[in-house]
Amino acid sequence: MTDQVTTPRPAPAGIRSRIDATDIARIAVFAALTAVLGLPGGFAVFGSVPITAQTLGVMLAGAVLGAWRGALAMLVFLALVALGLPLLAGGHGGLAVFVGPTAGYLLGWVVGAFVVGAIVHAGGRRLTWLRTSVGVLVGGILIVYAVGVPVSALVLRLPLGPTALGSAVFLPGDLIKAAITVVVTMTLVRAYPRALRARPSVRA
């Protein structure tokens, strides 16, 4: 006989949309985590777009916090960057980064975190390995690339096709980060479900 943990009934929409002190703390934690992941630095492709570990923070924020709170964590992080804090890989910060080759990727982090959370926590249902994997891959990789690559091509004045093809250098690292995100998220569901805002359950 297979044990099964039931999913708590979702709260009414008005309650779910309310952000409390605990949410603010979690949003701050994931903004800080994204900053910490940039400390090792990165190395550039196309001369100016760095490969960093910070997209791991994007994926985790969406998967753990959910759509809106994950996106807010990224907005908080980017607001601090805009204020001049050197939180991006390599110690970059300030408004200039939002008009450079990385601008599309930074915007993609916000949209990507939202999409990850929307898919992973779809309908308030219990988390599954499959849906979590799909959410992380679609939001954390596909969406970020879909926003970042065209902007990078525009800023660098390069054709879109070669720019998209060149972005394949990001894929191996991003797939590793996606796998880490899925494992961490599903482990939290089982071992410490309170870490997730919706407190979902998973089939045993």
Automatic annotation (TrEMBL):
<feature type="transmembrane region" description="Helical">
    <location>
        <begin position="134"/>
        <end position="155"/>
    </location>
</feature>
<feature type="transmembrane region" description="Helical">
    <location>
        <begin position="175"/>
        <end position="193"/>
    </location>
</feature>
<dbReference type="GO" id="GO:0005886">
    <property type="term" value="C:plasma membrane"/>
</dbReference>
<keyword id="KW-0812">Transmembrane</keyword>
<comment type="similarity">
    <text>Belongs to the BioY family.</text>
</comment>
<keyword id="KW-1133">Transmembrane helix</keyword>
<dbReference type="InterPro" id="IPR003784">
    <property type="entry name" value="BioY"/>
</dbReference>
<dbReference type="Pfam" id="PF02632">
    <property type="entry name" value="BioY"/>
</dbReference>
<feature type="transmembrane region" description="Helical">
    <location>
        <begin position="105"/>
        <end position="122"/>
    </location>
</feature>
<feature type="transmembrane region" description="Helical">
    <location>
        <begin position="75"/>
        <end position="99"/>
    </location>
</feature>
<feature type="transmembrane region" description="Helical">
    <location>
        <begin position="24"/>
        <end position="45"/>
    </location>
</feature>
<dbReference type="GO" id="GO:0015225">
    <property type="term" value="F:biotin transmembrane transporter activity"/>
</dbReference>
<keyword id="KW-1003">Cell membrane</keyword>
<keyword id="KW-0472">Membrane</keyword>
<feature type="transmembrane region" description="Helical">
    <location>
        <begin position="51"/>
        <end position="68"/>
    </location>
</feature>
<keyword id="KW-0813">Transport</keyword>
<protein>
    <recommendedName>
        <fullName>Biotin transporter</fullName>
    </recommendedName>
</protein>
